[in-house]
Design goal:
This protein is globular. The chain contains 14 helices and eleven strands. The longest helix is centred in the middle third of the chain and has 19 residues, at 180-198. The chain is 46% helix and 16% strand. Helix 1 crosses helix 14, helix 7 (104-113) packs parallel to helix 8 and helix 9 (180-198) crosses helix 10. The chain is of the alpha/beta class. Strands 8-7-9-6-5-10 form a six-stranded mixed beta sheet, sandwiched between helices. Helix 2 (26-37) links the parallel strand 1 and strand 2 (42-46). It folds into two domains: 2-140 and 303-327, Rossmann fold (3-Layer(aba) Sandwich); 149-295, 3-Layer(aba) Sandwich (Rossmann fold). The model has no long low-confidence stretch (mean pLDDT 94).
C-alpha cells in the first residue's frame, strides 16, 4: 500500500523509540525484527531477556532494548514512584504501585509517560480495555480532550471522494455512545489526526440522518450541539454539521442541501454519531467500495498508544508502529 510505505519511509527519518510489551507473542518478535531492519523505530521489548534472545537473531538484538518488568531495577523503582504520584489520590499505596508496575502493559505505559519511550503498540495478546486502562491512568488524554477514539483511514479507487480518494472516519472502534461534548472532541481529534498523518486540510462533516435541520429529533440536536462545540474548540479547522453522508461527499447534493457550507461535497473527515453507525459505515465502505482500511488509529492520548487486533498480522504490527512514530512527532 503506497500510503503505508510513505508512513514507513517518513518514520525511518526519525529516531523514535516504541515499546512493544507483548514479547510472549511470536508475531511481536517477528515484527520487532522487521521494524529494526527497516529503521522504522528503535524497539523496546518487555519480557525475559534470555527467552527473547533465543527467538531473535543476534544482529537484530544489537538494536533492540529488552526490559524485564518482573525484575527489580532502579528504573522500575522510578516508574513505580511515578505511578504512585499519579494514582495515590485513588488510594494506591507505594507497595501496590510496585506490584502493578510488574505488569508489562503498565511498565510500558509508564515508560511512555516518563518520556523513556515515545509511544506504545499493544493488543496482539490483550483486549482493548486492558490496553487502554493503564494508558488512561498514566499517560492520560490531551488538553481539551477527555475521550479516546479510533479512526480509520479509508483509501478508495474513486479519487473524486475525500482528499483524492482518502477519507478519515471516526469513531469506529472505541465508544459505543457519547454525548455532544464527546462527539465534538472526537471530531477535533480526528481533524488533528488527519492533519498530522496525511498533511491535508481537514474538512470535517459530523454525520446525521438530517442536513441543516431538515429533520427534527433529539439525535439531530446532539450532532448540532457537537458541531458548535467542535467549531469553538478548533476554529482553525473547517467543521460543519449536522449533515447527511451524500451532502458531505457529493457536491451536487451539497449545493441543494447546504449551499453555503465549506465542507459540504468536499468532506475528507467523516464523524459518525455513534460507534454502531461508525463500525457499519467503515466496513460497508471497505467491502462494497473495495476501500483499503488503515487502523484503528487511537487518538486523544497525550502521547501515542495504539491498540492492535488480537488477530493482527506481523505486517499490521509493523504498520501501526510506523503510524505511532508519526503520531509522536
Amino acid at each position: 500500500m503506497e500510503l503505508i510505505e510513505s508512513f514507513k519511509k517518513k518514520a525511518s527519518q526519525h529516531n523514535k523509540r516504541i515499546v512493544l510489551p507483548e514479547s510472549n507473542d511470536e508475531r511481536i518478535l517477528q515484527a520487532a525484527k522487521k521494524i529494526t531492519e527497516s529503521d522504522i523505530a528503535e524497539v523496546i521489548l518487555i519480557g525475559q531477556e534470555a527467552k527473547i534472545k533465543k527467538e531473535i537473531e543476534k544482529d537484530c538484538l544489537t538494536r533492540i532494548i529488552i526490559k524485564d518488568s518482573a525484575e527489580n531495577s532502579q528504573e522500575k523503582e522510578e516508574l513505580a514512584e511515578l505511578l504512585y504520584e499519579l494514582r495515590h489520590h485513588k488510594g494506591i499505596s507505594k507497595e501496590k504501585a510496585r506490584d502493578i508496575t510488574s505488569d508489562p502493559l503498565y511498565y510500558a505505559t509508564l515508560l511512555v509517560a516518563s518520556g523513556r519511550a515515545d509511544g506504545m503498540v499493544a493488543g496482539a495478546d490483550n483486549p482493548t480495555g486492558k490496553v487502554l486502562r493503564p494508558a488512561l491512568q498514566t499517560i492520560k488524554t490531551k488538553a481539551e480532550i477527555s475521550i479516546v477514539s479510533g479512526a480509520f483511514i479509508m483509501i478508495l479507487d474513486k479519487k473524486n471522494f475525500g482528499d483524492k480518494g482518502v477519507l478519515v472516519m471516526s469513531d469506529c472502534a472505541v465508544n459505543p455512545q457519547v454525548d455532544a461534548k464527546g462527539l465534538a472532541e472526537i471530531a477535533v481529534s480526528t481533524a488533528r489526526t488527519s492533519k498530522k498523518l496525511l498533511n491535508i486540510e481537514p474538512k470535517v462533516a459530523l454525520l446525521s440522518f438530517s442536513t441543516r435541520g431538515s429533520a427534527s429529533h433529539s439525535l439531530v440536536d446532539k450532532v448540532q450541539e457537537a458541531t458548535a462545540l467542535a467549531q469553538k474548540i478548533a476554529p482553525e479547522f473547517a467543521i460543519d454539521g449536522e449533515m447527511q453522508a451524500d451532502a458531505a461527499l457529493v457536491e451536487a447534493v451539497a449545493k441543494k442541501k447546504a449551499p453555503d457550507s465549506q465542507v459540504g461535497g468536499k468532506a475528507n473527515v467523516l464523524i459518525y454519531p455513534d460507534l454502531q453507525s461508525g463500525n457499519i459505515g467503515y466496513k460497508l465502505t471497505q467491502r462494497l467500495a473495495g476501500a483499503e482500511a488503515v487502523g484503528p488509529i487511537l487518538q486523544g492520548m497525550d502521547r501515542p498508544v495504539n491498540d492492535l487486533s488480537r488477530g493482527c498480522s506481523v505486517e499490521d504490527i509493523v504498520n501501526l508502529t510506523a503510524i505511532t512514530v508519526l503520531q509522536a512527532l
